[in-house]
Write a structure and sequence with these properties.
The structure holds three protein chains of three kinds. Helix content of chain A is about 65%, strand content about 5%. Chain A is mostly helical. Chain A folds into three domains: about 50 residues; about 140 residues, no CATH class; about 220 residues, MetI-like fold (Orthogonal Bundle). The longest helix of chain A is centred in the N-terminal third of the chain and has 47 residues. The chains are: A mainly alpha, B mainly alpha, C alpha/beta.
Chain lengths: ~425, ~450, ~300
């Protein structure tokens, strides 16, 4: 006996060392995953947060009739076509006199965003009496200037490697010293559609596109998914080959790569049924097919969790099967079903690959007005921007990701709350 | 009258149907002293009328809307001048596309060919007629249905049973959509793939080692007919998936083990949501991170120790994909490990085994089938993952096993071949469907195999 | 509960040695009073203490999650090479007490044990006590047969392997054969030692678990309702086996079946609501119970 005790005791140190090592690897795995998550989120936030502000530049514009080429009494279409760009250019040359070299002139013009002229246009058209007056306006700076002021261009680099040259730096230092540049909240980012100019690009069209796409997806997948789940859980005969086949299909569809659904959408919805390309409608249809398995599986689990005694009580009162389901089982399972639906929708909101197949990669400036207008969606917008070379678009991409993550967090919180609020232990 | 107005009117009609059906049910029962003589609640009679009003008319509407465009174009084509009709089918198609777009816009462009103008006019006329007939037909059917159901209302008529039958029918239809979807996937990729394999032999596709799908746009262009040997794509997919799984499987499995066997409740309550966040991040975000942060990082490190690293290396894509799959692997393994009965652990602890001995020698062997299933599902996920590789892996179809070089994958090529404006039946786009078919078949086999293993495993301990 | 008094006359009246037992014979059994009485008693009725015991336990309290106390001040000695049966209604704490003896309760989150528990004079819950070593000395057999999903051979060899008891294969073979023989299973399985242990019948599986437990030659074997999942024939085999094992091991068995306790044990301990009520020679407990709770239990008035 004691011989055995000694043997066991002798091996103990080694065994506990092994135990510790194993435990360490487990902990290390978790730390690794969470560290990656932290790095990913920090990087995105560090890159993206500056995009919520935008550099504005103060301009003294002379809205003289001769520079504009119209007077205050001109009709609307003349007003619209007036040469506001000249006014902007004049304002810049007055601010920085003595610029003669062609290259520098171009650079001077590119200090401010091309939207400056449109801002003036809107201002004058709203109040033609401004013609002939001098005004102080704040206009958006060009994306390179914006990038510089956000500290993303290193002025100690050799000049040839920089997008901002030395002569521009002297201008910018002068502007900064006199307080003629300012960082403001970037409203444009939330109120405009995509643009080739980074400083004018916004996510509104993508947001609306995502909204309409999600609307179509929700309206289709929720009723269909719940109906299918009810049938499979409450009505379907057991050990019926047809029902088994449906189940195999659902489980398998849940694991089919998303891009294959894109191929389906392209070949069936667009080519065969002639649904218009690039629209929220076709995107919603594809995402519906993708989301259905998630909703069906979650709804079935929720229905299964309702104890049979409830059903038996209803049957005992003489309720029909359909009445039992709609009066008792379904309302009790609803929180679980809604949770599953929200999670499915969150997945759909972040989905990109299948939508690339059905033409949702088009460059969309206009804000879609309905489900049959061409639309981009948020993840696709992220994909498109991430492909653009400008430094300013990297920032926008991260900002768009932050917005996307914001919506996903909201949806998941909603799901968690719902689960907590209605959690029921039978 | 367009479809949305018809739908709106049908809904109004349905509301009326319900109201009158219910009223009639009450009326017929009144003679027999009240509602309790009715077989079903009055509302069911209302619903029955609604069903008879909507169901047939909606089906008619759908059929008409689906077939009438084909019918109209056929009619217009047959009325065209003979020389156009006998021309090459693609020309006829082009001609008809113009006609249809003019008709849809509702304005006939006077600068076009007179034959086209004539055809567009005819098209518009036929369409107007068709819409009129559609409206009349749909409302006639709706009215007939209503009338029929209305006539049937009687105290002993089993309205509830009828309505419930329809409800269950609709549910069966909804459940069958899963089958229809699978069928749709198979048919869509299969048909286009078959067309692809008519031009490119299957053996060349499966065993060719050169992939360059750029076909000549004009016949006189140099650049040949493109080659479609998919081996480099398969190799690239395999390489990236192997890297991803090499990270995701051990890390995911160890995380699951730690969470289910070691972690205290408090730790679990914090770490599990953390992993769920990792799972909830959209793949496009991972792709962006891989391309913009991880790839340059790997490149810098590689170059600092004297290695040449491509700017879009397989390693970067695989690494990030691995992280993406970690939560998937860990939650599947967690389920599997928790399914091992507590009695097994007790038995082992009762013998004096330490935790790690119990895990390694009892729990993991017991959970092995489930873990294999989880592994297969993770592999299927890695193979089918698209956005990360599209953004971080690049397009060059290199046949290499070096993770520091750039490779391309099946999914990347599908995306590249199908985005941008393409003719639908050029070999280039068809190749995408052939790749899609390969991908679908491969993942289908993995999924079915994995799901079967996991289910068998669950049943064992239930 | 009111029917207790009515059926009283069919039972042989016990000789009233104990005050609480005698005085309250005709009172209805009400939980409040029972608990009060049990709280008052300083030690169990009967003969709880022995000279030179294997286990020495005093004032053992067990808590689950602080709020819920499962065992209240148990005092009990368990002798060497005896079979002690622990009986009582479900949820009375007998299994919990059993699991304290080899610290199996450690594996349950939030379980706390206080009081004095000694094995051969060593503190079971002491700082320098190693649970791994302890469990190698105090083996356990569970309610449901739980062979590992391994071969019969590997099941039995599991303990010796993890504890490093043997260094060569033939020694291990000997241990496995010997253990299976002691568990009375060897003849049934000697031709299929490499087939999975889960393929055996329920009774065989339980004997495999016993073989597994004795393969590390423990000093004590704890058995937690080892036959409750088995049919009567398998139960009889296991009972015979326990009787043989008594020669070399101390055995503590929790059982639901009073007949089983009467058949195989030398001493019996009766638990009720987390209190140890009465301990005595098995014969005495069943023929002449001294506490009215014990009497009511063994006469089948509640269970």
């Amino acid at each position: 006996m004691s011989n055995k005790t000694e043997l066991v005791r002798a091996s103990l140190a080694k065994r506990y060392a092994r135990e510790k090592r194993f435990r360490f690897w487990g902990l290390a795995s978790i730390v690794l995953s969470l560290a990656f998550l932290a790095i990913l989120l920090t990087t995105i936030f560090m890159q993206g947060l500056p995009a919520f502000t935008q550099t504005y530049m103060k301009l003294e514009v002379d809205l003289s009739a001769e520079a504009l080429g119209v007077d205050a009494n001109a009709p609307q279409d003349k007003l619209r076509a007036a040469s506001y760009e000249t006014v902007v250019m004049n304002a810049l040359t007055t601010r920085f006199p003595g610029v003669t070299e062609r290259k520098q002139k171009i650079a001077l013009k590119k200090l401010v965003s091309s939207s400056a002229a449109y801002d003036l246009q809107a201002m004058v058209m709203a109040d033609p009496k401004l013609i002939g007056t001098k005004q102080t306006v704040w206009v958006m700076a060009d994306d390179d200037i914006d990038t510089y002021f956000k500290g993303n261009i290193d002025r100690n680099q050799p000049e040839a490697d920089r997008r901002i040259k030395d002569f521009q730096l002297t201008w910018l230092d002068d502007l900064e010293a006199k307080g003629e540049v300012e960082r403001r909240f970037n409203v444009t980012f939330f109120t405009s559609g995509d643009s080739r100019e980074p400083e004018q690009a916004g996510i509104l069209s993508a947001l609306m596109g995502s909204f309409y796409t999600m609307l179509v997806t929700l309206l289709l997948s929720f009723p269909i998914g719940v109906a299918a789940a009810i049938y499979l859980e409450e009505f379907a005969p057991k050990n019926n080959p047809f029902v088994d086949f449906i189940e195999v299909n659902i489980n398998n569809l849940a694991a089919v790569p998303s891009i294959v659904f894109g191929l389906l959408g392209l070949a069936v919805f667009i080519q065969f049924f002639g649904v218009p390309r690039s629209t929220a409608l076709v995107g919603g249809l594809v995402l519906t097919l993708m989301t259905l398995p998630t909703i069906i599986i979650a709804s079935r689990a929720a229905l299964k969790a309702v104890p049979p005694s409830i059903r038996q009580a209803a049957y005992g009162m003489g309720a029909s099967r359909v009445q039992t389901v709609f009066h008792h089982t379904l309302p009790l399972a609803m929180p679980g079903i809604l949770t599953g639906t929200i999670i499915g929708m969150a997945q759909a909101l972040g989905e990109t690959a299948p939508l690339l197949m059905i033409g949702m990669v088009a460059f969309i400036v206009d804000i879609p007005q309905g489900i049959t207008d061409p639309a981009a969606i948020l993840p696709v917008q992220i994909y498109l921007w991430s492909d653009s070379p400008e430094r300013a678009f990297t920032e926008k991409t991260s900002a768009a990701i932050i917005v996307l993550l914001f919506f996903l967090v909201i949806m998941n919180l909603l799901a968690v709350l719902l689960r907590k609020r209605f959690e029921r232990r039978w | 009258m367009n479809t949305s107005i018809i739908l709106l009117l049908l809904l109004v009609l349905a509301a009326f149907s319900y109201f009158f059906g219910r009223k009639r049910a009450l009326a017929v029962s009144n003679g027999n002293r009240g509602v309790n003589k009715l077989h079903s609640l009055p509302g069911y009679y209302g619903n029955l009328v609604v069903v008879w009003c909507l169901l047939p008319s909606l089906i008619a509407l759908m059929l008409w809307s689906f077939f009438s465009p084909t019918f109209i174009s056929q009619n217009v084509i047959s009325s065209l001048p003979a020389e156009i009709q006998n021309a090459d089918p693609t020309k006829v198609n082009l001609f008809m596309n113009r006609v249809e777009s003019m008709a849809k816009a509702g304005a006939i462009d006077p600068t076009t060919d007179p034959a086209q103008q004539e055809a567009a006019r005819r098209y518009m006329e036929l369409q107007a007629n068709s819409n009129l007939i559609k409206a009349v037909l749909v409302f006639a059917i709706a009215g007939l249905g209503m009338f029929w159901a209305f006539r049937k209302i009687a105290p002993n008529y089993r309205a509830r049973n009828q309505v419930e039958k329809v409800i269950v029918g609709i549910m069966i239809f909804c459940a069958s959509i899963a089958i229809v979807t699978t069928l749709g996937i198979i048919l869509s990729v299969l048909f286009e793939s078959l067309r692809f394999f008519q031009t490119i032999p299957l053996t060349e596709f499966l065993f060719g080692t050169h992939w360059s799908p750029q076909t000549a746009i004009r016949t006189d262009q140099v650049g040949g007919s493109g080659s479609f040997g998919a081996i480099p794509l398969f190799a690239g997919t395999l390489l990236i998936s192997v890297i991803a799984l090499a990270i995701a499987v051990p890390v995911g499995l160890m995380s699951a083990i730690y969470l289910s066997e070691y972690a205290s409740k408090r730790v679990r309550a914090w770490v599990k949501p953390g992993l769920e966040i990792l799972a909830g991040i959209p793949t496009v975000v991972y792709g962006f991170f891989a391309a913009l942060t991880v790839a340059p990082f790997i490149r810098t490190i590689g170059e600092s120790i004297g290695l040449t690293v491509a700017s879009e290396s397989a390693l970067a894509a695989g690494l990030v994909m691995g992280v993406m799959i970690i939560p998937f692997m860990s939650s599947l393994s967690d389920d599997v490990i928790n399914a091992v009965p507590q009695a097994m652990r007790d038995g082992s602890y009762g013998m004096g085994a330490t935790r790690s001995e119990t895990i390694k020698q009892v729990i993991l062997p017991a959970a092995l089938p489930g873990i294999v299933g989880a592994f297969l599902l993770a592999a299927s996920r890695a193979i089918g993952e698209t956005m990360i590789v599209v953004m971080a892996a690049g397009l060059s179809a290199n046949l290499t096993a070096n993770p520091l070089e750039a490779v391309t994958t099946v999914t990347v090529q599908i995306v590249t071949l199908l985005t941008g404006d393409q003719e639908f039946d050029s070999p280039k786009t068809l190749a995408a469907f052939a790749l899609g078919l390969t991908l679908f078949v491969l993942t289908l086999i993995l999924n079915i195999f994995a799901l079967r293993i996991v289910r068998k495993y669950r049943e064992q301990y239930e | 509960m009111n029917t207790v008094a009515l059926t009283n006359d069919t039972m042989p009246l016990p000789t009233a040695k104990d005050v609480s037992a005698a005085s309250s014979k005709d009172q209805p059994l009400d939980i409040q009073t029972i608990v009060e009485e049990l709280k008052q008693a300083s030690q169990p009725v009967g003969v709880p203490f022995l000279d030179d015991p294997k286990f020495y336990t005093r004032d053992v309290d067990v808590f689950y999650n602080q709020a819920k106390q499962a065992i209240f001040g148990v005092d009990l000695d368990i002798g060497k090479n005896e079979v002690i049966a622990m009986i009582g209604p479900s949820g009375c704490g007998k299994s919990t007490f059993l699991r304290c003896l080899n610290r199996m309760n450690d594996t349950i989150d939030g379980c706390k044990v206080t009081g004095q528990l000694l094995l051969d004079g060593e503190d079971i819950y002491g700082k320098d006590q190693d649970p791994v070593l302890l469990r190698a000395r105090v083996g356990m057999v569970f309610q449901k047969p739980n062979p590992f999903p391994k071969s019969i051979y590997d099941n039995v060899a599991y303990g010796p392997r993890i504890h490093g008891l043997t260094t060569n294969r033939s020694e291990l073979d000997d241990i496995v054969e010997d253990s299976l023989k002691k568990a009375g299973l060897f003849n049934e399985v000697k031709d299929r030692l490499q087939s999975p242990g889960t393929g055996l019948s329920g009774g065989q599986q339980q004997r495999l678990c016993i073989a597994r437990a004795i393969a590390v030659s423990p000093e004590v074997i704890l058995m937690d309702e080892p036959t409750s999942a088995l049919d009567p024939i398998a139960t009889a085999t296991i009972e015979e086996l326990i009787d043989e094992l008594r020669q070399s091991f101390t055995i503590c068995i929790v059982t639901h079946s009073m007949q089983q306790a009467a058949r195989i044990s030398q001493r019996t301990a009766y638990f009720h609501l987390g209190y140890l009520v009465e301990v005595n020679k098995t014969n005495t407990v069943f023929t002449n119970p001294q506490h009215r709770l014990t009497e009511n239990y063994i006469t089948g008035r509640f269970g």
